[in-house]
Amino acid sequence: MRQLILCLVPTLWLIPAGVRAQTKPATVLLADRAMKVDDARVEAGDLWVTPEALAKINRGEIKPEGVCIGELCIPVTPKDGLLRQEGDKKYVCLTKLATKLKQSVAQDAEQNVWSFGPIPAIEKSNQQLLLAPDFALPDRQGKPVRLADYRGKKVLLLTWASW
Amino acid sequence: VILAVAQDTGGEAAAGKFYDGAKVSFPALIDTQHVVSSLYHMVNVPMGVWIDEQGRIVRPPEVAYSRKVQFLTIKVDGDRYAAGLRDWVEKGDKSRYVLQPSALKEKLGPRKAAEDLADANFKLGVYFHQQGNKELAKKYWQEAQRLNPDSWNYHRQDWSFTPAEAMTKWMAKFKALGGKEYYPPLEIP
């Protein structure tokens, strides 16, 4: 019986025939963060990272039903080619995931720096609830301050610039 | 509470002296990547958003001066903005300056894919600027400006690093607006 159930769960992990990707440290930019990803792989203009790196980058998690980022889960089928396994290592394609999420990507191929824009679905859900998007930024002493620290108070969020 | 956020890639070195000069008593933050402008779809400064005790927006981003401003053809009724702000602080949700959810949702509306791509390019430029790679910073900042020409922030941040030309460039872009508003008009009763 146990075996039967296992058979019914399709694997999302594709095992590629030939390995063409090269391992190359990448830098991923998202919101206010720049993250070094040591064992990233780049292939045909796509960026692949390990599930551990995905968790670090955007709290992403791979579940049987798909990829979840915080509360947002998107279904993934093997056809999407988003996940793959090479030997005992698993990789997630960050750029294909971005396409599925309608998230914009700008990259410098030579320096291997990848910059990801906001996720429209998360933005939309915030807007529907009129929730002020949270952020963490340093104060002048470098101490991180979150908008959410001020729950219970009225906030005038005020941008300005020296230029 | 006022949460002031400097949209300054130059960091403390650029923004610090202004905070000192104003002797600010409220939280003074520094946002080298323009994260707040990105999250709240702001293309200029100064902009303000009113957020209530539950973390909900009650007025969308809008030009936020505390007194009347008049410069060239730019006119902002900052005094009315400040009066509205005081009214909201006193009356909360009952303030007539608090927008209805339906009106707010309309104003917060979705942004275009080009704006998101501009955002990703701008951040790439900031990264290279912070790495000391001026050439690549310029390349991605120009791409951000091309994708979102309405963002004064993307342009002026870039120009701030060549201060001798900044004013001329600003003036040329300002003239190119023709009759269009520099700031979206303040819709405050």
Entry keywords:
A: 163 residues, alpha+beta, five-stranded antiparallel sheet, four-stranded mixed sheet, globular, disordered N terminus, B: 189 residues, two-stranded parallel ribbon, two-stranded antiparallel sheet
Written description of the protein model:
- Chain A is of the alpha+beta class and about 160 residues long.
- In chain A, about 20% of the residues lie in helices and about 35% in strands.
- Chain A has 4 helices and 15 strands.
- Chain A has helices at about 1-10, 50-60, 95-100, 120-130; strands at about 20-25, 25-30, 35, 40-45, 45-50, 60-65, 65-70, 70-75, 85, 90-95, 105-110, 115, 135-140, 145, 155-160.
- In chain A, the strands form 4 sheets. In chain A, strands 1-4-5-10-9 form a 5-stranded antiparallel sheet.
- In chain A, a hairpin with a 5-residue loop joins strand 13 and strand 14 (about 145).
- Chain A is globular.
- Mean pLDDT of chain A is about 90; it is low at about 1-10.
- Chain B is α+β, with helices and mostly antiparallel strands and about 190 residues long.
- In chain B, about 50% of the residues lie in helices and about 15% in strands.
- Chain B is built from 8 helices and 6 strands.
- In chain B, the strands form 3 sheets. Chain B has a two-stranded parallel sheet.
- In chain B, helix 5 (about 115-130) packs antiparallel against helix 6.
- Chains A and B meet through strand 11, strand 12, helix 4 and strand 15 of A and strand 1, helix 1, strand 2, helix 2 and strand 3 of B.
